[in-house]
Write a sequence for this structure.
């Protein structure tokens, strides 16, 4: 019998093979991690574990740290007023000094949300394995890296060995064909995907985003897309590297230079999925079916287009879905069967590792000139990093926001999870560009979150209620 | 560093109903400002247990009939959301030794396994059947048998499943991979030497 022609491989398979060290006695694979990112909330405990085991950091030169989750965004004077926050940062600082780890704090000029600074410093590159004690590590997949969140004990494993014990994932190709309609952004695409495939539809899978609508996205938009893979249950989401990727990386601080750049390009091109690659599953979407999308419930899959009505419990397909619709409606205090447009908003938040990048602020600024935030609405713009803030300020975007009635803050995670002083009060409802609308996510146990694109957040801020940005900003 | 071989867990159980119970629900972020996990148990499910005025809301965790329960029963997609190990750690520090649910979010499942806290799946109907037994008889011992692949409570025994790799790791006392990973140092060096990007 003739040998079958070797089938093409997808990016996940290629990167996995290059990084697989061996099969462990447990049956899991030992996998090398090319880049390890640390932040103050999930890492200090891992250094404690390392100390207990009398182990050292194996590859401090592949490890980088920053602070994002708990830093205040109004004043940055140390020590922070919150002594617990101060304690966590001190613990991280000491560990970095002790182990020789590069640490991007406020003085470095590059502090920011870990998933914003990795790419903008050029640390995140195609064909790498990237781990961080944070589920939105999937963001880095935008570059064609296999990037995923890990727990603190696994942070210990990477620190001690630069490897992890893992099982391979299946790969689902998500193809978005055609062109996005105007006013529709990467955020709408991913909310639409999660809404369709479910919040646990991606369990056991890496998502490969492809199709002409995805190829047309900028790197920052691709990051938004990959960022929320985990909200669909997929630990990993990636886009194959292409000219857009290389263009973005050229000249960044940690990007390869000179002859190394050419070697890099060769490697990066080689790990993209082959045209005849096989997948465990393929799902196709038509870009023109996607409208500006907002959540109405308490998980990111509970989403509808801005033109739709809030679901009713009767619309459920199963008793379990009925129970979850009921729970969500009660918590959100929304009227079933009524339009989502018009729901009053108390707070507007633009920021986070999903939508806190320069292009997000540029796009919003383009719309809000001459449009004031509605009376009674608190509006916060929080750049994802010091580099984002500097670039935005150099273009005068901060002034555009301030003139329109927004607070322009210092970089950090801020109201995405409210571990710092920025938070909702009582039952306030927030139009948010972040990624999670879980109960209590934005700091108040009864606070309510509606996820949407930054431009839709801006429209909600101007209208004082959930609104269609295409109407609010009609020329 | 010999680890316990976890083949069977027996204890009383409590049922926390609901699907998509996320890690923010299990341990709200504001309680994560700590450099060790030790004090987390007290804040398990905090916002689901206590209202804005500090009054108890009647959460199963505060029901004296289920005090001391070491097995948690819940519904689909348990532990979704963040990768924070604070969630399984809060459960463990509170005294939970295993979770039985319809399904689990992946990172939560992995984090729990690494702590030696098995997460086993049973069908929706079986969750409800187990819940009925526990409700009728809160002191009934519940046994999770990883080898047999069953969960039993009183006269009721239902089939359970768990990823084979996780089951083997627990049963063979290999749930914390650090010793095996350290033993692979030589092979790790070889793989690293072949990775183009480490020396671009
Ligand atoms: S911005 Fe939000 S989701 Fe992103 S890393 Fe910070 S807390 Fe996590």
């Amino acid at each position: 019998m003739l040998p079958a022609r070797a089938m093409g491989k997808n990016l996940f398979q290629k990167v996995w093979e290059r990084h697989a060290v061996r099969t462990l006695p447990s049956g899991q694979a030992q996998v090398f991690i090319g880049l390890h990112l640390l932040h103050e909330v999930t890492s200090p405990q891992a250094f404690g574990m390392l100390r207990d085991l009398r182990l050292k950091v194996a590859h401090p030169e592949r490890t980088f740290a920053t602070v994002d989750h708990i830093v205040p965004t109004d004043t940055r004077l140390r020590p922070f007023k919150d002594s617990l926050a101060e304690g966590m940062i001190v613990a991280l600082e000491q560990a970095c000094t002790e182990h020789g780890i590069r640490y991007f704090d406020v003085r470095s000029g590059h502090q920011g949300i870990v998933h914003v600074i990795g790419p903008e410093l050029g640390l995140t590159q195609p064909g790498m394995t990237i781990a961080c004690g944070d589920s939105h590590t999937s963001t880095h997949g935008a570059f064609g890296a296999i990037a995923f969140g890990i727990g603190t004990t696994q942070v210990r494993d990477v620190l001690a060995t630069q490897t992890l014990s893992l099982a391979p994932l299946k790969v689902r190709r998500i193809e978005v064909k055609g062109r996005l309609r105007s006013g529709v952004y990467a955020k709408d695409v991913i909310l639409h995907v999660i809404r369709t495939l479910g919040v646990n539809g991606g369990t056991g899978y890496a998502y490969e985003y492809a199709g002409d609508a995805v190829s047309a996205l900028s790197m920052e938009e691709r990051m938004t897309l990959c960022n929320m893979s985990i909200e669909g249950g997929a630990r990993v989401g990636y886009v194959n590297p292409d000219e857009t990727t290389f263009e973005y990386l050229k000249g960044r601080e940690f990007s390869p230079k000179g002859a190394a750049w050419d070697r890099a390009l060769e490697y990066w091109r080689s790990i993209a999925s082959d045209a005849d690659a096989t997948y465990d599953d393929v799902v196709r979407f038509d870009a023109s079916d996607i409208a500006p999308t907002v959540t109405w419930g308490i998980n990111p899959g509970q989403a509808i287009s801005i033109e739709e009505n809030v679901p009713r419990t009767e619309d459920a397909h199963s008793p379990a879905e009925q129970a979850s619709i009921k729970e969500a409606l009660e918590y959100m205090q929304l009227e079933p069967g009524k339009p989502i447009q018009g729901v009053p908003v108390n707070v507007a938040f633009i920021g986070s590792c999903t939508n806190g990048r320069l292009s997000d602020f540029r796009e919003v600024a383009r719309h809000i000139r001459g449009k004031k935030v509605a009376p009674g609405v608190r509006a916060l713009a929080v750049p994802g990093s010091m580099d984002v803030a500097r670039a935005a300020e150099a273009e005068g975007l901060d002034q555009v926001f301030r003139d329109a009635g927004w607070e322009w803050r210092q970089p950090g995670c801020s109201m995405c999870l409210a571990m710092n002083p920025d938070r909702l009060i009582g039952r306030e409802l927030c139009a948010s560009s972040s990624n999670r609308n879980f109960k209590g996510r934005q700091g108040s146990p009864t606070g309510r979150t509606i996820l949407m694109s930054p431009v839709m957040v801006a429209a909600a801020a101007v209208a004082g209620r959930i609104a269609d940005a295409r109407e609010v900003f009609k020329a | 560093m010999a680890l316990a071989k976890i083949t069977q867990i027996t204890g009383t159980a409590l049922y926390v109903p609901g699907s998509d119970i996320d890690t923010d629900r299990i341990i709200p972020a504001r309680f994560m400002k700590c450099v060790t996990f030790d004090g987390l148990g007290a804040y398990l499910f905090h916002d689901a247990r206590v209202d804005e005025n500090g009054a108890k809301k009647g959460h199963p965790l505060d029901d004296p009939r289920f005090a001391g329960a070491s097995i948690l029963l819940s519904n689909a997609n348990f532990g979704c959301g963040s990768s924070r190990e604070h969630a399984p750690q809060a459960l463990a520090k509170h005294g939970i030794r295993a979770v039985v649910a319809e399904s689990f979010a992946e990172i939560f499942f992995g984090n729990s396994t690494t702590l030696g806290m098995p997460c086993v799946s049973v069908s929706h109907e079986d969750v409800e059947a187990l819940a009925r037994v526990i409700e009728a008889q809160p002191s009934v011992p519940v046994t999770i048998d990883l080898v047999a692949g069953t969960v039993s409570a009183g006269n009721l025994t239902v089939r359970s499943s768990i990823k084979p790799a996780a089951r083997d790791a627990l049963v063979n006392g290999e749930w914390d991979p650090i010793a095996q990973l350290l033993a692979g140092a030589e092979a790790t060096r070889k793989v690293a030497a072949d990775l183009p990007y480490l020396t671009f």
About this structure: The CA atoms of residues 31 and 164 of chain A lie 5 Å apart. The mean pLDDT of chain A is 96.
